[in-house]
Amino acid sequence: MADDTAKIIECPCGAIIEGSSDDDVVTKAQDHAKATHDMELSRDQALSMARPA
Q: What is Dmax (Cα atoms) for the chain?
């Protein structure tokens, strides 16, 4: 179930990823992980790092 609360993820590399919802922050985190770290990030992994903004 998607949550429409704004979320933020602080990547260990120092990047701050913000999204307006779970889906938004997950997509942005997955894009960041692929482009910056050449890794795949699952939805569960991204959400485990997310906190309310």
A: 29
Per the structure, the complete domain to which residue 15 belongs is given by 7-52
Q: Name the residue with tokens 């179930």.
A: 1
Q: Which residue has the tokens 């990547």?
A: 11
How many structural domains comprise the chain? 1
User: Does 2 fall in a domain?
Assistant: no
Q: Are 43 and 23 in contact (CB under 8 A)?
A: no
Kindly give the parts of the chain with pLDDT less than 70. 1-3
Residue 19: inside a domain, yes or no? yes
* Full-model pTM: 0.90
Residue count of the chain: 53
